[in-house]
Automatic annotation (TrEMBL):
The keyword Cytoplasm applies. Functions as guanine nucleotide exchange factor (GEF) for RAB11A. GO terms for biological process: intracellular signal transduction. One of its GO terms (cellular component) is cytoplasm. Keywords: Coiled coil, Cytoplasm, Guanine-nucleotide releasing factor. Its main location: cytoplasm. The keyword Cytoplasm applies. This is SH3 domain-binding protein 5.
């Protein structure tokens, strides 16, 4: 058997087969590079090719902020809307209960006096319609006067030079004449409408006066009931207006939410299209699953480390479709950091 010899490095080698020591000008020997394992991973860090690192599109951050703001507003306003609807229903039930109690105490005088209060309601509506018709008539008169002034100015321009007909002034005169005719029709229509609603208002007032004389006693006895009813009606109208306003706010917030989602989908499609246009990269180990995607059965068997990190409610990555679920509740900064880490790891392995 060959005699073993101890060398300074501590390794025993056969005699005559000494390991050459590193010279003074030589640096430390680099370790042997490890081959990639069968599962597609490697203990040494893979080389990142220049130009492959891609910055996060700033539009994504902006649209995510819009998405989160709209989501928070929807949640807040919907809570207010639920509370307003609950209050409206409670007041409605309370008013019905109190009115029924009041009606049972007063008896038949309520039904006797009801035509009078109904006539008062119709008279009030007719008065409001009269005011609206008067405003429309005044507006039509103003438009008619303005159109006549325009015709006067156009006529002065046409007659300024009798020897030459200016087509510009002629066109202006024709346009002003059409406006005068339209304004005249509108004025006549407004005048007739104002006269009609005025007659209806006068008839309603006359009916109220007649019923007041006929049903004076029943009106006096039933007054508490109808006053209470008027109070509840006003309160319910106010709460109904509040509910309607909150519903409009929710609809507007949902519209902004949908717009942000659509913008994110368009950005994602643009990024995918840009990536498809990139030159082919050198072949490398098998690519692991991207963040936000479910692992394939083979990857689960191999124990691949590229399984979803967004499985516990984190935001999907840039390339994923964002229009299939609710808004991400994670902080946008955390989302951006995770996206960049996942993106860097993905390109590093490709």
């Amino acid at each position: 058997m060959a005699e073993l010899r101890q060398v300074p490095g501590g390794r025993e080698t056969p005699q005559g087969e000494l390991r050459p020591e590193a010279g003074p000008d030589e640096g430390p020997r680099s370790p042997v590079s490890e081959e990639p394992r069968g599962d597609g991973s490697s203990s040494s860090e893979a080389k990142v090719f220049p130009g492959e690192e891609e910055e996060l599109d700033p539009r994504i951050q902006e649209e995510l902020e819009h998405l989160n703001q709209a989501s928070e507003e929807i949640n807040q306003v919907e809570l207010q809307l639920d509370e307003a609807r609950t209050t409206y229903r409670r007041i409605l039930q309370e008013s019905a209960r109190k009115l029924n109690t009041q009606g049972s105490q007063l008896g038949s005088c309520i039904e006797k006096a009801r035509p009078y209060y109904e006539a008062r309601r119709l008279a009030k509506e007719a008065q409001q319609e009269t005011q609206k018709a008067a405003l429309r008539y005044e507006r039509a008169v103003s438009m008619h006067n303005a159109a006549r002034e325009m015709v006067f100015v156009a006529e002065q321009g046409v007659m300024a030079d009798k020897n030459r007909l200016d087509p510009t002034w002629q066109e202006m005169l024709n346009h002003a004449t059409c406006k005068v005719n339209e304004a005249e029709e509108e004025r006549l229509h407004g005048e007739r409408e104002h006269q009609r609603v005025t007659r209806l208002c006068q008839q309603a007032e006359a009916r109220v006066q007649a019923l007041q004389k006929t049903l004076r006693r029943a009106i006096g006895k039933s007054r508490p009931y109808f006053e209470l009813k008027a109070q509840f009606s006003q309160i319910l109208e106010e709460h109904k207006a509040k509910v309607t306003e909150l519903e409009q706010q929710v609809a507007q917030a949902k519209t902004r939410y949908s717009v942000a989602l659509r913008n994110l989908e368009q950005i994602s499609e643009q990024i995918h299209a840009r990536r498809r246009g990139l030159p082919p990269r050198p072949p490398g180990p098998r690519r692991s699953s991207p963040v936000g995607a479910e692992a394939r059965p083979q990857e689960e068997e191999d124990g691949d480390s590229g399984i979803i990190e967004g499985a516990e409610g984190e935001a999907p990555e840039e390339g994923c479709s964002l229009g299939l679920g609710p808004a991400p509740d994670a902080d946008t900064g955390t989302w951006s950091r995770k996206h960049r880490e996942a993106h860097h790891r993905r390109w590093m392995w490709t």
